[in-house]
Amino acid sequence: MSTPVGTISGKFFPPRVHTVDHTPGVGYPVHMGHHTQTDEFTAWLAAVTARVKAIREQKGLSLRAAGELTGVPFNTIARVEAGRTVPSLEVLYTLAAGYGVTPACLLCGDRRRK
Asked: Comparing 21-30, 44-53, 88-97, which segment has the lowest mean pLDDT?
């Protein structure tokens, strides 16, 4: 039996995400550690999340089906696609692997397949 995506030696490692602060009147920048999101980063992140959603929809997958395929909880995928969380590289890599695309496809729009 193969090891599911998101596991190492059969142990599941939950995806790491940073919650985006949507408190009224606060908005961006969102502080993550010592980094601050800029307008440029915010625009890039919006493009990444749009690509995550577009690829899932192109494959005809519901959020639940995408979660089962990739091993990323469907509610995490929903938060990423809605822009409510900043996905970790681990989450993006796991989604890319499950969708059969390269991580560059999600990060930069490079449409080459794995």
From this structure: 21-30
Residue 110's CB: how many other CB atoms inside 10 A? 11
- Mean pLDDT of the residues in the chain: 77
| pTM exceeds 0.70 for this model | no
Does the pLDDT of residue 9 top 70, yes or no? no
Count the neighbouring beta carbons within 10 Å of the beta carbon of residue 75.
12
Select the more confidently predicted residue: 92 or 19.
Answer: 92
Residue 24 CA to residue 46 CA, distance in Å, equals 19
Architecture of domain 36-114: Orthogonal Bundle (1.10)
Question: CB of 111 within 8 A of CB of 97?
Answer: no
